[in-house]
Design goal:
This protein has about 130 residues and is of the alpha+beta class. It is about 20% helix and about 40% strand. The strands form two sheets. The protein has a four-stranded antiparallel beta sheet, with no helix packed on it. The protein has a three-stranded antiparallel beta sheet with strand order 4-3-6, with no helix packed on it.
Length: about 130
């Protein structure tokens, strides 16, 4: 089958124009992007309906929460400062950049650092 020269030229122009676009798309992918699993936890949900929340909590220097619980378990990420978490019979000290798993048991959190602290709570509670 013979391809008319006009179509050959159009096909070559299309191929040439795609190459730079493809290169540009890959050029945006930075080799500096790194992915790290900070925490992994197997979880059995009590219901197929889960109410998920992301909560930011700021702790002034020296503050300690009363004993409390949350609606559900989930990972907690320390954005800033140092926190001491007492949950059940387990005590952990977590600093900026660290992640811990909260089970939902009664707990206290105390800012034991020399500055304010910030915590992001990823909470998974029963759906309503």
């Amino acid at each position: 089958m013979l391809i008319p020269p006009v179509f050959k030229k159009a096909a070559m122009l299309a191929a040439v124009s795609i190459v730079p676009l493809s290169h540009a798309a890959f050029a945006n992918e930075s080799p500096e992007i790194k992915r790290s699993v900070l925490l992994q936890q197997k979880l059995t949900l009590p219901s197929p309906n889960v109410h998920a929340k992301v909560i930011r909590v700021n702790f002034p220097q020296g503050v300690k929460t009363p004993r409390h619980t949350h609606e559900g378990p989930g990972p907690r990420y320390v954005v800033k400062g140092t926190l001491q978490v007492v949950e059940g019979d387990k005590t952990g000290i977590y600093s900026a950049g660290e992640v811990f798993w909260e089970s939902g048991q009664a707990m206290t959190v105390e800012n034991i650092g020399g500055e304010s602290a910030e915590l992001i709570i990823f909470e998974m509670g029963p759906g309503h």
